[in-house]
Amino acid sequence: MCRNCGAIVGAGEPQCAVCGAPTNQPVPASNQPVADRETIRFARAVLNRPYKFTIVLLVANLFVFLLMWDSSGMTSTVLWSIFPERVLEAYGAKLNYLIDAPNYQWWRFITPMFIHVNLPHLLVNMYSLLMVGPFVEKLYGSAKFVVFWIVTGIAGVVASYLTVRPQLANGLFPRFIFKSMDVPSAGASGALFGLVGVLFIFGIKFRRELPEGFKRAFGTGMLPIIFINLAIGFVARGFIDNAAHLGGLLSGAALALAVDYRRPGARASVTYLWRFLQILALAVVGLGFYKIARNFNRPVPAVVRASAKGSSQIFTNYLGAMNEMQEKVSAVIHNNDLSDVAVVTQRAMQMPAPDERASELRTQLVTILSKLAEAAATANSSGDGPRRPPPLDQKLVDEFNQWRKDYDEWLKIAVKLYAAPQ
């Protein structure tokens, strides 16, 4: 530890990286660098400030992770793989189709920043929080720090939500931003990038009044961290949500441009506005997890997955086949028309489905058509004339009507995912 400013110094380092004071054996006075008094004063003032909310956020993330592990069976295997999708959904992972109509689960813009998919994911993010969080909280105070964390975390989730665009996720660089599938997205990395953005702008904005040691740590000193993480994201595109990282980074930079920091020697009090914003931000998080608890045991609606294979042409062809099969079902019900049932069914089954839900709905309709055709054929053999359609089992008709409701719900979401861009 540096004897001048109290900063932690690595073993073998000849001088403190913050204040520049020597840490090893004394050297001749003519060659010994003199520590900058302003650097020492600044470092001591910052290092003595508390960072309690950094610890609070770390504990909150650990607590949620333990709950998720318990819901996943508390096996050691699941810690190193990925939590089951049903667990991620239940605890509030971001899924576009659950945020959109008809589900409107808006709280999934908030809760993802507190959940993680496995133990390595948690450890990396919590280590990063311990490295970056205290600096931001010491510089700006706890109230602003909490607002920064929650606002940039939400901004990262919003960016992730807006970039689920299968039709744009083609090519090397578009896939860095856009996602071809609506899969669960979670993690604190968007908020962590937000804190990095805050320190980056902080170092540039106040570069004239910062001591030399802090100029090297913040501002342009953050560029290697930013570039390295973006490079990792580019290599692991498709697995890492780069849009969330960029959303957090840019929102953090924007906040730092607009917000001042607590200079050394300034009173620790904060304005009522920032205290109110802190309480409001924490209340929003609390409300989000209250909604998670309210919906915890409710079944999650069937998911529609947007994929690169689910192109506009496949979707269009599938719709044509399904419309033809629905017309045939109506013809059987109302006109006792059994012609070409086998042909229509075969054509529909040979048509590629854009996603798993589409395939499931097609199978259900084929089953309904088969039952209706069989019932109609049996009724025809009773000797009733062709001008009078035989009465069919009302249960089959009700089953078809229920299927149409399910199909319409899927279609509302699928049109947004698969329809060709205008």
Can you lay out the helices and strands and say which pair or pack?
Layout: H1 37-47, H2 52-71, H3 76-80, H4 85-91, H5 96-99, H6 119-140, H7 142-162, H8 174-177, H9 189-205, H10 212-217, H11 223-235, H12 242-258, H13 272-294, H14 312-335, H15 341-350, H16 356-380, H17 394-418
Helix pairs in contact: 2-6, 6-7, 6-9, 7-9, 7-12, 7-13, 9-12, 14-15, 14-16, 14-17, 15-16, 16-17
Structural class: mainly alpha
CATH homologous superfamily identity of the largest domain: Rhomboid-like
| Overall 3D shape | elongated
Strand/helix succession: HHHHHHHHHHHHHHHHH
Number of strands: 0
Question: Summary?
Answer:
This protein is mostly helical and 422 residues long. Helix content is 60%, strand content 0%.
